[in-house]
Amino acid sequence: MTIHNDIRPQLNLVRLPNGEGLDLPSYETSGAAGMDLRAAVAVNEPMTLAPGKRALVPTGFIFEIPDGYEAQVRPRSGLAFKHGITCLNTPGTIDSDYRGEVKVLLVNLGDEPFEITRGMRIAQMVIAPVTQVRVAEISESSSTARGAGGFGSTGA
Ligand SMILES: O=c1ccn([C@H]2C[C@H](O)[C@@H](COP(=O)(O)OP(=O)(O)OP(=O)(O)O)O2)c(=O)[nH]1
Ligand SMILES: [Mg+2]
């Protein structure tokens, strides 16, 4: 997609000291749904994730998600397929009013230790619109053809 007049919503980022020198999160291709997030671990202190273990990996940035949007932190399929590395809480939710450092909760479901080095693209983040609703308690729900049927009620 060529963007002649960029009317996309703006994502403001604040770089933290541990993010010094890291590339900004970026779309790797013109039609990518997600921006890759990079690990802000220290160069001389890579993080090793043992099989079955989880870790919160810093990204080095505070994000200001535009109002009316959220960010979803999702695994990268390559890391999942090759190494069994995925996001434990997938999709992670970044609220638009969150002003802390964005972190990625990785888990190693593989059978080898996995080393996370500085700048490694560890996850991807999709910006998506969200709707907040008004909550109203009512005494009886409306009737539908499905009714309470679920969990396979329509057959295989
Ligand atoms: O993968 C994630 C998930 C969450 N967060 C941050 C941003 C998000 O806005 C905040 C809260 O996340 P969530 O609502 O999922 O966690 P919670 O357990 O409900 O915490 P809280 O009580 O702070 O909402 O934590 C991350 O940095 N990475
Ligand atoms: Mg919450």
Give structural notes.
The protein has 156 residues and is mainly β. The chain has one domain: Distorted Sandwich (Deoxyuridine 5'-Triphosphate Nucleotidohydrolase, Chain A), CATH 2.70.40.10. 4% of the residues lie in helices and 36% in strands. It is built from 1 helix and 11 strands. The strands form 3 sheets. The protein has a 5-stranded antiparallel sheet with strand order 2-3-11-6-8, with no helix packed on it. A 4-stranded antiparallel sheet has the order 1-5-9-7. A two-stranded antiparallel sheet has the order 4-10. The relative contact order is 0.24. Deoxyuridine-5'-triphosphate (DUT) binds at residues 73, 89, 92-95, 98, 102-105. Deoxyuridine-5'-triphosphate binds at residues 73, 89, 92-95, 98, 102-105.
Sum up the structure in keywords:
dUTPase, binds deoxyuridine-5'-triphosphate, dUTPase-like_sf, hydrolase, 36% strand, dUTP diphosphatase activity, single chain, binds magnesium ion, Deoxyuridine 5'-Triphosphate Nucleotidohydrolase, Chain A, nucleotide metabolism, globular
Explain briefly what this protein structure is.
By secondary structure, the protein is mainly beta. The chain has one helix and eleven strands. Helix content is 4%, strand content 36%.
